[in-house]
Amino acid sequence: MSQTIDNRIVEMQFENKQFESGVQESLSTLDKLKKALKFDDASKNLQDFGKNVSKNVDLSGLSKSIEGLSGKFSASGVAGMEAIRRLTDFAIDAGKKIASTLDAPFAQIRQGGWKRAMNIEDAKFQLKGLQVAWEDVAGDIDYAVADTAYGLDAAAKACAQLTASGVEAGDAMKAALRGISGVAAMSNSAYESISPIFTKIAGKGKVQAMELNQLASYGLNAAASMRDFFNNVIEGNEKVENIPEELKIKVKNLTKGLKVSEQDIRDFASNSAIDFQIFSYAMDSAFGEHAKKANETFFGALSNIKAALSKIGAEFATPIIKGAIPIFNEIRVFLNDLRKQMG
């Protein structure tokens, strides 16, 4: 068996004479640099400056100030300063809270009033496009939200959308809008959250299982409420005395004059047999009147205060909005002309 041996040898030699020569050359270079920068003169100048200061400047006051400052940072001094800082922060925070509380009503007037005015303006514009005068539906809208926790502006927008779906002003519109108020109150929801469900049903003309399930997600069993409404109509109970006769006939024809169960209602919905008129009257009959008891709850009472403040704000915002429209139009014409000239 052959073996290969790889020998690596590292050899280091220390040349002392060469090292000393290099050191002497470096020291010589540093001496030249020192003389060039006049370090010796600088050191002497600093010493002279120190002597002059010690002779001519009285630093005893500074010494006393430093001692006084040191006392401030003793254990008791730091504790006292921390207490003052906390009291100051507390006073500032309390002032901010007081200012915020005092400003809250005015903020509601500004923000709530502007929102109310804008929503009503949008609703009027939509109604005008549908050839419906605001005066023709204003009473229906007020009927739906008066004494509830909901605003006229939210109901106005829903009214415009329902009108577009064919719901006529009068009793049908009142039932639909107050039905929204009732469902919103029972599910502790915003009017704007429930109104799209109603407008969707109105647009299709029929209530289906999808909408019943959607209302169930808000914690409301609409199918059970409609069952009670159907049975009240069939039995001729006083609760449905104000229901239009044509609607009563429609319900009786659908049920063949027999009482129904919740499952029957769901089956009707699956077959698209329940139209929007029946649905809206059923919701209004079940929950509409209850929505008008909002003042009995904390949320309802607070909402009505906000609504009252918003009404005040809307009185200021409405003329501003109306006055701004022609001005904006003039600005638009000017900008269009400017664009053409630049082109």
Q: How does this structure look, described?
A:
By secondary structure, this protein is mainly α. 78% of the residues lie in helices and 1% in strands. It has 14 helices and two strands, in the order ααααααααβααααβαα. The chain has a two-stranded antiparallel ribbon. It is elongated. The chain starts with 15 loop residues before the first helix and ends with a helix. 27% of the residues are buried. Mean pLDDT is 79; it is low at 1-12.
User: Could you give a short account of the major beta sheet?
Assistant: 2 strands, antiparallel
Secondary-structure element sequence?
Answer: HHHHHHHHEHHHHEHH
Share of helix among residues?
over 70%
Rg: 43 Å
Query: How many beta strands in the DSSP annotation?
Result: 2
Beginning-to-end CA distance, first to last residue: 95 Å
**Helix-and-strand structural type:** mainly alpha
Low-confidence sequence ranges: 1-12
User: β content, as a range?
Assistant: under 5%
Helix tally equals 14
Please state the average pLDDT score.
Answer: 79
Strand order of the largest sheet: 1-2
General shape: elongated
Give the tags.
343 residues; mainly alpha; 14 helices; 78% helix; elongated; disordered N terminus
Layout of secondary structure:
Elements: H1 16-37, H2 39-56, H3 60-72, H4 75-129, H5 134-145, H6 152-164, H7 171-186, H8 191-204, E1 206-207, H9 209-216, H10 222-235, H11 245-255, H12 262-270, E2 274-275, H13 276-291, H14 298-342
Helix pairs in contact: 4-6, 4-14, 5-6, 5-7, 6-8, 7-8, 7-13, 10-12, 10-13
